Amino acid sequence: MNKYLAVVVCGVFFLAACGGSPTASLSVPSVSFGDQAVGTASVAKAITLSNTGSAELSIVGIAVPAPFTEINTCGSRLAAGATCTINVTFAPATQGYFTSSVSITDNAEGSPLGRKEIFST
């Protein structure tokens, strides 16, 4: 009797803890910074990270390579249905065309999530 009750409670009340899964997605397909003077930082561009799944998203890391930088409001966990913001800036040390992506390592299927290309000239 106790086993049956535990399974029913798990299936009805604790779906996320019993097999639900997180789903990470980003708000935009790309971000463009355009021309930026060497040695100066751009205005930050915001990208929203959403967890549209049924379980908590565990975030291991968020990264962008130089000459881009990021500051985020995500923390290490994002509840199901919640969002956070990743602010990306561009500060070139040399002239050129730079292409990169935001890499998000988490527990969602398909991690790392690195779909957002960042372009700049």
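the 2nd protein, sequnce then structure:
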Amino acid sequence: MKTYVLHTAAAILLLVSGCDFFSTREPEPPLNRQSSWLIPLDGQQTLENLQASVYEQHLENFMRSLADTAFSDEPYSFTPDAETGAEYAALFTHWSRQSEEAAMQQVFTLAASTGDVHLVLTPDAEEHPSANLMVWNGRYKLELTHTAESLPSVYEGHVIWHLTPDSRGHWVIVKWFDVAAKNRVSWSRLKAALGG
């Protein structure tokens, strides 16, 4: 009987206190950003995912496009353009997947106030030396709207990507070679400025 009285008293207290269990509440924001990432079953889908991840400023998807030793025997590697590589040899000698992640996080942070980052890829050649290797050669233009006066807003050059399937069958970039375009600021320069 004592328990019944306590439960009844608690229920009356809740009703009197104004708790409205049946009222609608404000919707909560989604836990994750929307993305257009697709399982990359070929190299072209990986490049589309990479491009979309930049536009969507989705760091996790950007990183999913790069080889990860948890799923790939071959680690991700980046080779900067020759001039930037010589000037920042100490930085790029130890450039890793983690460096790439830190640099892209900074890119997305810079663009957060404006929300604008665009990556345009223009293919020059695509080769398939074997069933498990795609070599993509083309031009890129990375446009980053930001307020940092010390950084340019446009980065252009040529890129050579080696893509292979990982242990899950997802195609990923294992090697990234940046080649400077004449009178243009390369993506390597942006990576050097952000330090990875």
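The domain at 39-194 is CATH 3.10.450.50 (Nuclear Transport Factor 2; Chain: A,). The chain has one domain: 39-194.
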